[in-house]
Design brief:
- By secondary structure, the chain is mainly α.
- It has a single domain, classed as Na+/H+ antiporter like fold (Up-down Bundle).
- The chain has helices spanning 2-11, 14-27, 36-61, 63-91, 96-107, 111-123, 133-139, 142-157, 167-176, 178-207, 209-226, 231-259, 264-275, 281-289, 295-327.
């Protein structure tokens, strides 16, 4: 009953309801559209806000408390593509370059899923480490780099060495792409300015945050709704993959959070990050480095399958796992 109540509370949160509204509008073929500059502005705001708040919390907690779970998050992000790639390649019988691209998306993380999880935990009164957004910042790039290396190795083996950009270009895109620069840069700014700096911008980055998130998730619902027709193209295997993999990765993330000393809420958040899939940072890097990969497969799996699943059921699932683990 507790799990059912947690799912109900999550489904009735403003974030999920606005996402559902966007999906409904897309399915109904509404003419609702977000101007591209507005979408870009909302993205920048959300990434800077969570990075800045995480940096302030990082400064208050101190490096000694953060380094172990942050290192575990980096390692987890790098390892996820290594086990998802063979599943996609051999169980799913996908081309090597597509398997590598999808693995990179699932090893990287979704900032919006993380924000929805923190909102949910706050709404139900579950505490968590305020520096948890540091995990989001450090998990963006490792999986992208690993996935690209896997794809390049496969292309080289197949004699297609000219189909992808150089590793130097890929590393630059993965480490200095928009989302990574905004997250890590804002994290550093927040750490340097501390709580005194937060007081100066709190009205903008804290008070307005929920309204901006609602608008962003409305747009995400529109995008996901328009991709529902692509589900027929990705097949039943990717449909199952997009649900089972978050369950497995989420469990591993919760367990890692537990053994590295995070609180129950912090472990649940690390599980949510592990369960999520990137649809902002990873697509840009993959498009540059693995142009032969089919973007329909990775984007539909990440955005039309895994993102809605995590937004509705995955977040309560990770919290339920954490509660079970910490009570045993």
């Amino acid at each position: 009953m507790e799990i059912i109540e947690a799912v109900r509370a999550n489904l009735l949160s403003p974030a999920v309801l606005f996402f559902a509204l966007g999906v409904l509008a897309a399915v109904a073929k509404s003419d609702l559209r977000f101007p591209e500059p507005l979408y870009a502005g909302l993205t920048i705001y959300l990434l800077v806000a969570i990075g800045f708040k995480g940096g302030v919390a990082f400064a208050e907690a101190g490096f000694a408390q953060v380094w172990l779970p942050a290192t575990a998050a980096i390692v987890l992000g790098a390892l996820i593509p290594l086990w998802t790639y063979p599943v996609l390649r051999f169980a799913g019988k996908l081309p090597a370059v597509d398997a590598a691209a999808i693995a990179a998306h699932y090893g990287s993380v979704s900032a919006v899923t993380f924000i929805a999880a923190t909102n949910y935990l706050t709404a139900i009164g579950q505490s968590y480490e305020s520096y948890a957004s540091a995990f989001l910042a450090v998990m963006e790039s490792p999986a992208i780099l690993v996935g690209v290396v896997l794809g390049k190795m496969a292309a080289q083996k197949a004699g297609q060495t000219q189909t992808a950009g150089s590793l130097r270009q890929v590393a630059h895109e993965a480490l200095f792409g928009r989302s990574v620069v905004l997250l890590v840069g804002a994290l550093v700014v927040g750490a340097l300015s501390g709580s005194a700096g937060m007081k100066k911008v709190e009205a903008f980055f804290v008070t307005s945050f929920q309204g901006v998130l609602a608008l962003f998730l409305l747009e995400m619902g529109l995008v996901a709704g328009r991709r529902l027709s692509d589900l027929r193209k990705v097949g039943f295997f990717l449909l199952g993959f997009g649900i089972v993999v978050p369950l497995v990765n989420g469990a591993v993330g919760v367990w890692l959070g537990h053994i590295t000393g995070l609180s129950l809420g912090g472990a649940a958040l690390l599980g949510v990050l592990a369960a999520s899939a990137s649809y902002i940072a990873a697509p840009a890097a993959i498009r540059l480095s693995l142009p032969d990969a089919n973007p329909t497969l990775s984007l539909t799996a990440a955005l039309a399958i895994t993102f809605p699943f995590n937004l509705t059921l995955g977040i309560p699932y990770c919290l339920a796992l954490a509660r079970w683990l910490y009570s045993s």
